[in-house]
Amino acid sequence: MSLLVRTIRKRQATFLGHVMRRGKLEHLVTTGKFEGKRSRGRQREKIMDELATWLGTGKVLDTLAAVKDRDLWRDIIANAYKQGT
């Protein structure tokens, strides 16, 4: 994985941590769901799913739980960035 992609994912993860700890409107936007039917065809890949796999936390719920502890979240991001996965 290139340095540029790793840097982008690191910045996405730090922004996610910032937004989730604030707990305001942005939190609802990133974790909320829309009413109605899903569209046909292959579903779009969500940023939360992509970050969960890159960080190695497994599920999205585990990722959201890790965000609450700032020091743990920084360690997870640093390890994922060093590994370059």
Task: Give an overview in words.
- The protein is mainly α.
- It contains 5 helices and no strands.
- Helix 1 runs antiparallel to helix 5 (70-83).
- The mean pLDDT is 81.
- The chain has one domain (3-29, 46-83).
- This is Eukaryotic translation initiation factor 3 subunit f.
- GO terms for molecular function: translation initiation factor activity.
- Keywords: Initiation factor, Protein biosynthesis.
The gist of it:
This protein is mostly helical. Helices cover 68% and strands 0% of the residues.
Percent in strands = under 5%
For the record, the count of structural domains works out to: 1
Taking all Cα atoms into account, the compactness measure Rg is 14 Å
Task: Give me the number of helical elements.
Answer: 5
Characterize the biggest β-sheet.
none
Number of strands: 0
How far is it from the N-terminal to the C-terminal residue, by CA?
A: 7 Å
Globally, the shape reads: globular
How much is the average pLDDT?
81
**What portion of residues is helical?**
55-70%
Structural class of the secondary elements?
Answer: mainly alpha
Element order: H for helix, E for strand: HHHHH
- The stretches of 5 or more residues where confidence is low (pLDDT under 50) are none
GO molecular function: translation initiation factor activity
Protein name: Eukaryotic translation initiation factor 3 subunit f
Keywords: Initiation factor, Protein biosynthesis
Give the SSE layout:
Blueprint: H1 3-22, H2 25-31, H3 47-55, H4 60-67, H5 70-83
Helix pairs in contact: 1-5
GO molecular function: translation initiation factor activity
Keywords: Initiation factor, Protein biosynthesis
Organism: Plakobranchus ocellatus
